[in-house]
Amino acid sequence: MANVKINLLINKPKYSAHIEESNSRIFTTGEVITEQKDFMRGHGTYLEDGFIKSSVVGVAKQINKLISVVPLKSKYVGEIGDVIVGRVTEISKKRWKIDTNSRLDSVLLISSINLPGGELRRRNAEDEQSMRKLLQEEDLLSAEVQNVYTDGSLSLHTRSLKYGKLSQGILISVSPSLIKRRKNHFHNLPCGISVIIGNNGYIWVAPIVNVEEQGGGFAQCLDPVSKGDRETIVRVKNCIQALSACYVMIYDTSIMYAYEESMKYDVKELLNQDTMYEVGFNAKQRILQLE
Amino acid sequence: MVQDLLSAQGLRMDGRRHNELRQIQCKLGVLESELFTHKNRCDGSAYMLHGNTKVIASISGPKHPSKSSGKKDESFIFNVRVKFATFSKNGERQKVLKNSKKLGEIEINLKNIFKSVILVEKYEKSQLDLNIEVLQHDGGSEICTIVNTATLALIDAGICMKEYVCACTASLTNDGLALLDVSHLEEICGGPTLTIAALPRIGDHEQSVAFIELSQKFYLKDLNKIFDCCQLGCEKIRTILDEAIRGNAYEHVNSDLTSN
Q1: Which of A88, A239, A263, B140 might form a disulfide with A258, Cβ 3.0–4.6 angstroms?
Q2: Which ranges carry the Exosome complex component N-terminal domain (chain A) (predicted)?
Q3: Domain annotation for chain A: domains and CATH numbers
Q4: A20, A57, A249: best mutation site toward chain B, by most B Cβ within 10 Å?
Q5: What is the strand order of the sheet A193-197 is part of?
Q6: What is the pLDDT of residues A24-71, one digit of tens each?
Q7: What is the mean pLDDT of chain A?
């Protein structure tokens, strides 16, 4: 008989003891942040009766005279230069529409990609018709934010060999606020796995492939992946989910810590809620010790 | 004549005093699971138990408008869908009408209430879906619990709003005493019921009212009394919601989030 384990939200353990140490103050919707008039209102705030009030629940941030409230959980708000992982939802004239976990779908113009083999693009009807050969609906890709339009939607580009179509691996989606902004979002972990940590909360875990061999970033590598690699990929995926469940910031070090903590368990055991929280919490402790 | 709702000792049928709410329990982020894929994932959810009424609300969006939503104008698309479970009333299985007038009315009311509170200009061209499931419902004033749950879900999803929206009901005894938070039993015993959805401000006694509904006629002189009672209830509910939200928020916040 199959052994089924059911996890109830009620039984979710609470690791809030160390949180009270942090002196960050939470503002809730409608709460007055400041009564002084000489401040500017930023994101997550609104002005009423001359007071700056919070419009979301989150942590207040002040840069000089600008006050903004960062919500705990929200859709991805793009910034130029961010690395993102996205999924093609639609192909229209000269552009791909891409789901990037933001409020509106992003666009990838055909003029902002490198054609395979470094070929130059001929501007004619043919290359618009052959767009589907490069990227189809439901394909995954990594890209960089080129521009943010006034309505908040993003324009992407893949003008580098590291960006392009993703072939074999696992996509994990976490809250964008958990992604730590770093210099590099492409990592080859010591365990022999590559991860792309998109700023938009989508994380791609895949076996390491040599970029130079691919040439152009739109070729798909469909070589069989060894069982050992696949197990490691799934373990990394479970570790990232454990970190996300414990609200630990996700970057290469935290993933490696969680990975090391998880080694004493089987891969499938990591799906168990208790194990998940233990792994996440241990990784968090190690990060705190590091600081 | 209406049956007396208040005993000689000043207690109601379920043992509450005239100015006491029913028990409220709430939880945020209930439909959140690491195991959902990104397509069927919801962006915010909440569960509320208010007396014998149980409601789950979930938010999906703000997202790119789906093709089926049809409207391709500049403005913000806000869809509300309310569903009553077949077993929700009296524990008996009942046929649920999908497009009944009553449901339509609740949906329109909710739409108007929340469109007035959400900072709509931030969500131009996008779509927000609010789905509400009433698992168990106790009497006619279910809109009150629905509004409170929807507020929690919207906050959980990180939607920009001006204030919490809190809804509450009140009724009147034969002696002209206002009763807070009417239960189903009290409602069927008669007496007018006033439902309001208000935006209670902290430290400010004047509330903006987003929605008001009256079930029966009563004397104008009693209006102020009932209205004040409702407002008091809204303030009390706000405190309860605020506590739940802060409790949930402190769980999220780690020292990393502020440094980013």
Answers
A1: A239
A2: 30-60
A3: 25-71 (2.40.50.100)
A4: A57
A5: A170-173, A202-207, A193-197, A186-189
A6: 678 888 888 888 878 888 888 888 888 888 898 888 888 888 888 888
A7: 83
